[in-house]
Amino acid sequence: MHRTQIHTPEQIEHALNRVLLSVQKPARYVGGEYNSVNKDWQAVSLRAVFAFPDIYDLGMSNLGWMILYGEINDQPDLFADRVFSPWTDMEEVMRREGIPLYGLESKRPLRDFDLLAISLPYEQLYTNTLNMLDLAGMPILSIERDATYPLVIAGGHAVYNPEPMADFIDAFVVGEGEGIILDICHLLEKMRGNSRDEQLRALAELEGIYVPRFYDVAYHPDGTVAQVTPNTPGIPAVVRKHIVPVLPKPFTRFLVPNVDTVHNRAPIEIMRGCTRGCRFCHAGMITRPVRERPVEEILQAAEEIIRGTGFDELGLLSLSSSDYTHVKDLITEISRRFGSENLGVSLPSLRIESVSVDLMDVLQDNRRSGFTFAPEAATERMRDIINKSVPDDQLLAVAREVYSRGWVTIKLYFMIGHPSETLEDVQAIINLSKAVLAEGRKIHGNKATVNVGVSTFVPKPHTPFQWVPVDSLEQIHAKQDLLKQGTRQRGLNLKWNRPDETLFEAFLSRGDRRLGVVIRRAWELGTKFDAWQDFYNHTAWQQAFDEAGLDMAFYTYRPRALDEVFPWDHIDVAVKKKFLIDDYQMSLVGETRHDCRDGCFACGILPKFSEMRMNTPADAWECPPVLPKHLRGLKSQQVIPLESV
User: Fold this and answer.
1) For burial by CB atoms within 10 Å, which of 40, 470, 536, 572 has the most?
2) What is the assigned CATH class of domain 368-514+550-560?
3) Taking a C-beta distance cutoff of 8 angstroms, is the pair 567, 512 a contact?
4) Structure confidence by residue, pLDDT tens digits, 19-36
5) What is the pLDDT of residues 544-597, one digit of tens each?
6) What CATH architecture is 3-240?
7) Global model pTM greater than 0.90
8) On the CB side of 116, how many CA atoms lie within 13 Å of its CA?
9) Are 126 and 508 contacting, i.e. CB atoms less than 8 angstroms apart?
10) Residue 515 to residue 536: CA distance in whole angstroms
11) Could you tell me which residues come within 8 angstroms of residue 61 by beta carbon, excluding any fewer than 6 positions away?
């Protein structure tokens, strides 16, 4: 049977009935979950499909696409479906039987939709993205898809450097997707029948939309970027990220998955952004400014989720949960309202502070299996360099509190490969982990454990460390060997990542547009599911680089000059490059910045945010941003004066 013979929902349903019992977890591919949405195809004016380029079990835990799925389906004239990467057994069946990739609810081939929106939260999904386009029967190159194909857009944290995927994506949504996704849908409705170039030209006028085909990249003889310039009149030289000035009400109509997922809980984002300024942290830089949701809004969302889904665990999400201004009030009220319902509440991203232990204690959670902290580095010198200063005495004091309140396991996350790190700094990870374990054994004896996760630092775009190189393979191996030898002790459990996977993440996150050829060739050589340790094929990637005449080391091990033009410099995240340079230079001498809630460093976000406030109705500001001290006290209807920043 040929793929072209299966192109209607009825044909796809019939084919699935024949083949699903031959694959693992067939429930991944049937749709129809509680709270899922299906609409009359003919009764809507535009159809979108959200794609997560990994398996259902992972994608169904991703909050980003689900928010936009709900936003579109709230519009009576719009319909949003969803699709995930099929596992290898299902892909084999689909290719053999000619079943195209399809929307789970409608059973329509992706080719039939008007808009294909792809989530790219991390770079390891790039080859899966190409694979999904191919399974959908669509050309993988953007330039080969005209307006008879769905418009292909992508968003997520990985697209803050969109260049490696520029050959394959029609348009990138840089920044936050709420609101702008409806603008895209309505523009496509309005421009149905126009050419793809005309549609993209109109899209490029929206703030936060980057259309790669309208930009040319020039390179110096040494391979570095000389400039990125528009090649079409009226196209902006710099694309500013889209920011949502006020967080909309939390999404609550969560789809109840057909199979167990990696995070089988309902997440509520309580705060977006972070003021801590950790120099390695990509998310902390690109999600500025901080915006908080009111306590009552979060509680109402929790009520709706519990009543409308049956989930028995909530995840209260933010980059630093204990920095949420009213976190104690929130946790106390959740415990009071839902304490009798055996509701589990998780607070990821807690700081190493006593308040974090107090918060978990208020929850009265009887499932005290593990408590997680992320010191990131084990010497105060290194913590000053990365701007995450936590004294060892404080960490050990908090560990004592954790163990004394019933937890028997503490999880510690570190990174190796920070700038100027030595083997002595790595040895300190071992020493600190043993010291934490010793605190646990004073209380729990041999039942106490410390799980130590150690990843390797990758300098990310738009951070103060974007100028530094990645550790060499030899250095990474030496540091990991030291850790493995030093943690051979009962009660210490070490996990680490493969060094070649670190290099893979580094060249994709720091790459330029020339990597499109490499990504395509690696996919042709069979790479996919690169985030899965058993699937990552370094040999294929090396072959792809060699055939393209490019060098991995150019993107990984090479220090950058302060005046180098980065492939992502035309993407404006509203944090000034001068601020990042100053912060990087401070790191070289171990100078720290305090939390910017306690004073503004003029990173660039407040002027951008002030401009947005000027254009936002006063009554929309239900939760004003957290401001530095000299700007605090403003009423919600006031505008932050630009001259004060």
Assistant:
1) 470
2) alpha beta
3) yes
4) 999 999 999 999 999 999
5) 999 999 999 999 999 999 999 999 999 999 999 999 999 999 999 999 998 888
6) 3-Layer(aba) Sandwich (3.40)
7) yes
8) 32
9) yes
10) 17
11) 261, 262, 263, 264
